[in-house]
Amino acid sequence: MANIAISSTQNTKVKQASGLRLKRSREQSQRFVIDYYRDLERALEQNYQIDYAFFCEELASDGDRDVLEMLDEHLVYPVTEQVMSKASYRQNPGGLLAVMVAPPVPDLSALDVSKATSILALVNLQKPGNIGALLRTADATGFVTVLVDTSLDLYNPNIIRSSTGTCFLNTIYRASSQDAIDFFGQNAYRVLASHLEGATSLFDIDMAGRAAIILGTEDTGLDDLWVNHCDNLVKIPMIGHVADSLNVSVSGAVFMYEALRQRLGSG
Question: HEC profile for the chain?
Fold first, then answer.
């Protein structure tokens, strides 16, 4: 490696990497951390740029070493185990960590409507694990467009990890609720909301055409603005004795796979 090894946890780069655990630091610096080689590999495949990286031989796996070969050696700093533990978000760090440049998430003006037959919109979701799981399922079911709030911290470490790197796909767009509602109306989307009080069963809804699936917050669901602008409030059938609701990531998965089933059936 071309750079001198870093052994001090007080090094400026180490302190910056450690500080990127905080949303404020990520926003101010327009940087974020990837501390798992598979996520880093997927970010690189989507042309994300590395600011600098740390490599610890003592902690390195074969996967770490393979991805290291993809990096410009001038961006990589050898570090000690102590330094890697300080910089990494994970409790049991691996041998490779990268500080990445955070590109701006595009807005609706960048969206090609002709390619966006099915859209998933996440409204005010708070839990990174749920957001990441939904991004992962959206990719698995062919949802090439996901709308997120303008305030969403897309590069939260837990979103990165739970999404298995699908947060790096160029399928994610920022939009306020009102802008999203206007967009759906202008482009003739059928707007379907997952709702506990829905009058229509999911299995009676036609999603083979242009449709948007709207998911609200984990605790309170969708606000009145969305409820009043949806074409259908849709309920997932449940026949158990106790369960009267599903986790939002599970509900979203059920909706998306039903949409996929209908698209495949209509083909």
Answer: CCCCCECCCCCHHHHHHHHCCCHHHHHHHCEEEECCHHHHHHHHHCCCCEEEEEECHHHCCHHHHHHHCCCCHHHEEEECHHHHHHHCCCCCCCCEEEEEECCCCCEHHHCCHHHCCEEEEECCCCCHHHHHHHHHHHHHCCCCEEEECCCCCCCCHHHHHHCCCHHHCCCEEECCHHHHHHHHHHCCCEEEEECCCCCEEHHHCCCCCCEEEEECECCCECCHHHHCCCCEEEECCCCCCCCCCCCHHHHHHHHHHHHHHHHHHHC
| 126 and 245 housed in the same domain | yes
Does residue 1 register a pLDDT over 80?
A: no
Chain segment 114-137, per-residue pLDDT in tens: 999 999 999 999 999 999 999 999
CATH of the domain at 43: 3.30.1330.30
